[in-house]
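Inputs:
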Amino acid sequence: MREQPDGAALLAIASEVLRKELLPLLPGDKVYAARMIANAMGIAERQLRQGEGPQQEEQQALAALLKTEGALEALTREFAARIRRGEFDEDVEARRLLWESTVQRVRESAPKALVGRSSGP
Amino acid sequence: MREEQKRALEQFLAGRAGASAVRIDEAHLLSGGAIQENWSLTATVTGGRYDGILECVLRSDAPSGVAVSHGRAQEFALLQVAFRAGVTVPEPLWSGDASVFGREFFVMRRARGTASGHRLMKELNLGGDRELLVERLGEELARLHAIRPPVEGLSFLRVPTLSPALQGVEDFRRFLDGHHTAFPALEWGLRWLERHAPETPERVLTHRDFRTGNYLVDEVGLTAVLDWEFAAWSDPLEDLGWFCARCWRFGQFDKEAGGMGSREALFRGYARVSGRQLTREAVFYWEVHAHVRWAVIALQQGERHVSGQEPSLELALTAHVVPELEMEILNMTGGRHA
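Outputs:
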């Protein structure tokens, strides 16, 4: 058993201290670095909270679409190659998968980009 | 700046300025620039046509850089050509080799003002009337685009056989083929760029990083267009698409011209100088191109960190802008699934 709070919760509280207590005290030329740190911690926290579930779902959906088995990395490469060859130009299912896997990555890397768009986080 | 660098530079400046003596009174490193190093210099020049106080910027390569950007001597040549064509750039003064400063460099007059996109979004007094500023930027681009090959001094710029649009597709695909991870949404965007590629009737000199953040403004208006290291012969609309692309609006999405003003004002300024009426449809292709190109550059920058060559939080985070660029590419090209 790991200790509570877990990694994601630690990142969340650490980031709060950084933003609320340290950031206001920093000289102007260090604010950008502090914001970058908060941003990096946020990405790590969201990845931890999401866990491996979305990756597994993506792997299964890709395997079904491409009708082949394999690890996510290899399936992604195959998907990319077939998009380039024009095999999915008119394919609704491929488009759905592409959109959902991209939105999933945006949720982790830049959730603010989803605000005001119909597929909210 | 080390003392011996400073001494060598003073000698160099005196020689080029035709002065009996030059003393560097002040030198400090300017922030920004993952690719090059910029030093602000204030020097006292005695004698010659520059006699008096000379305020300038020395620009040299940073220890590591992006392979696709030009070296300093080439950027200096580009700056000279743009300056002569009447584009508002810092006046290029002299270029020097590694024997003086340890790395290739050039010196230009220091322009006043601020370039930071984030500051421009918050401090609305900067840049003067924003619609007039954007119109002026359109005029600047038109002046640049009046330059056609061949131009003496710019022979280092390649003239590809493919159209600029298809050359882009090929270059981006070649990068992705050599990368350790595949990006299906970028491939989707590239497929769209391939299927919709326009012909370019005539190549012109393009800046290729003409966006908010790369020009200086003061309280009145534009003072200088900066960062010429990516310039190339290309389709003029590439610069307009890069400037208008949603990813370069710094969150001010309704201000389609670089987050600063209306697209109409930009196009108006462009038409006044070039006589060419731009259409939203024609520029749209290059906005998609801009998102794909920025994604590829972001991957390259991120890779400098990921590979372990240059650990940097800023570079590491740059890789994480790729997903939102991909989402926008899908949005723009019918790849969105409602």
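Remarks. The longest strand of chain B covers residues 36-46. The beta strands of chain B are 21-29, 36-46, 52-61, 92-96, 105-109, 204-206, 215-217, 222-225, 232-234.
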